């Protein structure tokens, strides 16, 4: 079908530095089952969090151009680091394209906490970003919530490698001090972290903590995508019982990404290898 004549039939692009965006993709597929989707995992360039902001911005823009060349009607930047570094540049470059970024869910966490102490698990780049710190200060002033910031160095790498024991060791190191300081709410401030939610819950249980709320922003991101598509009259109408299609691209191994799709969210889409700009 000609998607220029029927723009609602164009796909939505979703991209992350690796596998973390699968947590966002899972929400999108659940809430928008009739949408066609293209997922990009820039695993060959990951992790983004330890690279200079300008490098991440240029790389993210290269991935966005790759998606635009494939005719996407919207882009979800399913990566906190890329959102902080590049979402403004992407919107300036493609002003007519709906672009949804992600950010740690500080506002819902402040509303959920009973102790007034919120732990924030995120990459060093996210926690050092001016946009994040401004948001933290605004919400602290409005709610008096205290945000305990915990950079999680190496955690994305362990998750990407499927290193279960290494992931659990790091989670114990990062989560336990937040609980010891009285946090009763934890923000999963990187899209990778909801993929190991069960392991986080195990650490919480082992620490003897009770009723700790975990905040995952995937649902909010999807709701914003729905609002933007609806406003642009870009929502795809259901066509019988036919669901939307999904294809994936990676700058690393297609075999590895296929295995991750299967093990993490239980699906098996076609996966292709590609390059995005200069590596």
From TrEMBL:
<keyword id="KW-0413">Isomerase</keyword>
<protein>
    <submittedName>
        <fullName>Glutamate racemase</fullName>
        <ecNumber>5.1.1.3</ecNumber>
    </submittedName>
</protein>
